[in-house]
């Protein structure tokens, strides 16, 4: 049976890129780019709370890194490296092989090498923690507090699919294999637009990744910036997997459904053409979904007028 060091050597030890000191020492080393600031984020994924026990380990390896790349993109930061902490109830070679392949495939694509970490045994389920390291030009980070009245609100990707997939897998919606097949990839293999986030540094004002629900996360920007966010319901990009569902369920999935891992940001209207050009260059679907105003809170405009967004909902890491 593999011990800790054998597990690391077999599944997670790869040659470090030039300029890095990776797995094998007490600390990893790399040199930040002169004139850039270091950006760092860490996420924790726990079996039974953030993912199902029977999830494809390849997809889990992908998602474990993707959720961190999403945070870097929301700050306008470029990935540089990542660290992995992994706690397992037992060593399962096939699971580890698939998990590491999913992780490394995305790490290679994002130019975000794994340069260290830790492993240990857990008495319950799998626990995964990835720390990602990136960098952004000094003074160009996209902070939540930088939105201004008059800014456009933009959103990448679509909304609602991950929430619907979760409801189907939990049995909260009637069994629908076709709808599950259409929505499940959004839940288990998100593709955050981290490259677009980096390209927006110095152009957009404020940004956040939509992990806990559009209203909740956009509300963080509104609060930090001391502004009000007005969303246009007709402009929100509903995922095609929501078609045919009751209107109230669609509304809930779109406004408060989590696990989206898309980028919501604000920018001056004069940058609309430049922003659309960047999105087209990166192949990222992009929608202009509202605007920032004087005031506070998040509102939704529909055929009946402007209304406060749902006060309840959004993911709570302690409440679920």
TrEMBL record:
CDD domains: ThiL. Substrate binds at residues 50, 259, 315. Mg(2+) 1 binds at residues 43, 118. Mg(2+) 3 binds at residues 26, 71, 209. Keywords: ATP-binding, Kinase, Magnesium, Metal-binding, Nucleotide-binding, Thiamine biosynthesis, Transferase. GO terms for molecular function: thiamine-phosphate kinase activity. Mg(2+) 2 binds at residues 43, 71. It is an enzyme of class 2 (transferase). InterPro entries: PurM-like_C_dom, PurM-like_C_sf, PurM-like_N, PurM-like_N_sf, ThiL-like. Its EC number is 2.7.4.16. Residues 148-301 form the PurM-like C-terminal domain. Reaction mechanism of ThiL seems to utilize a direct, inline transfer of the gamma-phosphate of ATP to TMP rather than a phosphorylated enzyme intermediate. Belongs to the thiamine-monophosphate kinase family. This is Thiamine-monophosphate kinase.
